[in-house]
Amino acid sequence: MQDARAFREAVLALVGMIPVGHVVTYGQIARVAGYPRRPRQVGMVLKGLPEDTTLPWHRVVNAQGLVPSRGRFWGALLQIQRLRDEGLEVAEDGTLDLERYQWRGEFTPWPQL
DNA sequence: ATGATGACATCTT
DNA sequence: AAAGATGCCATCA
């Protein structure tokens, strides 16, 4: 590990690069950030985000396409709501079609945003 | 300081 | 295919 603070910064940066209408998994973020074995810490970072953050944290889901881990956490409903607002089809359970929505492209800063 | 917990993933029964 | 075990490490009690 290099630095917890740097890790957090990297994660936040990547999350902000997720295109609208797409989602990524925790493992994906961790891997691209350069920390292949720390998907969990990614979640820790997001948990620490302020409520008024502009970061699209709702576009981060687990590897199964299930929104929050145990089905319902503090704001699963909110996350699902937001995803739907962006035009994604999310089931009541919070499950969604990863094959269809997972972002597979490069994580680069928005070309025009 | 030690031990338990967790917005997860992956491997092994 | 489904359930259990392991890895990981920052945060909390």
Describe this structure as you would to a colleague.
By secondary structure, the chain is mainly alpha-helical. It has helices spanning 4-15, 26-33, 39-47, 76-85, 98-101, and strands at residues 24-25, 60-61. The chain has a two-stranded parallel sheet with strand order 1-2. The chain is globular and about 40 Å long. The mean pLDDT is 87. It binds a DNA duplex (13 and 13 nucleotides) through residues 1, 4, 7, 25-27, 30, 35, 37-48, 57, 60-63, 67-70, 73-76, 79.
Number of E-state strands:
2
- What gross morphology would you assign? globular
- Low-confidence spans: none
Radius of gyration: 13 Å
Q: Can you summarize the main beta sheet?
A: 2 strands, parallel
Nutshell version of this structure?
With 113 residues, the protein is mainly alpha-helical. The chain has five helices and two strands.
Topology at a glance:
Layout: H1 4-15, E1 24-25, H2 26-33, H3 39-47, E2 60-61, H4 76-85, H5 98-101
Parallel strand pairs: 1-2
Helix pairs in contact: 1-2, 2-3
The protein binds a DNA duplex (13 and 13 nucleotides) through residues 1, 4, 7, 25-27, 30, 35, 37-48, 57, 60-63, 67-70, 73-76, 79.
Can you give keywords for this protein?
globular, 38% helix, DNA-binding, 113 residues, mainly alpha
